[in-house]
Structures are given as C-alpha cells and as structure tokens.
Amino acid sequence: MQFERITCDPHRMNGQPCIRQLRLTVRRVVEAVALYPNREDLKREYPELEEADIREALAYAAAQLDDKVIELAPAV
Fold first, then answer.
1. Interatomic CA distance for residues 27 and 37, integer angstroms
2. pTM of the model
3. Which CATH architecture has domain 6-64?
C-alpha cells in the first residue's frame, strides 16, 4: 500500500512518520482520533488535518501491526 500523505524525514520529528511534512505525527493523529471520537471536535483541535489525512494515518497505523493470530487459552 502506498501512503501519499505520510512523510518520513530524519530531520523532522526524529524521523517519525508525519502527516504531509507537518510536525504532526501519525501516532499523534491516531491518539487524537481516540481522544476526540467526534470529528468536529478533532478538527477544531487540529484544524490543519484533512479527512484524507485522518484516514491515511489510521491505514498506516493498521499496516504497521502484525496480522499474526495468537491462540488464547479458553476462559474457565
């Protein structure tokens, strides 16, 4: 998957993935989505964020997760 809005620059935010060269990391966007489930509140807090930025940050974060299935013991 290609991420057009996610940038990584070793000289910006210690190379963490950011949104469109802004000083706004993918991690911060994902945290903000959890803190502000209402998109209007989120956009008030981060007016520079576009809806496409939010979608791509979530997709990027999901792509970084390992998709391995771990068997759990049944609950007793």
1. 16
2. 0.81
3. Orthogonal Bundle (1.10)
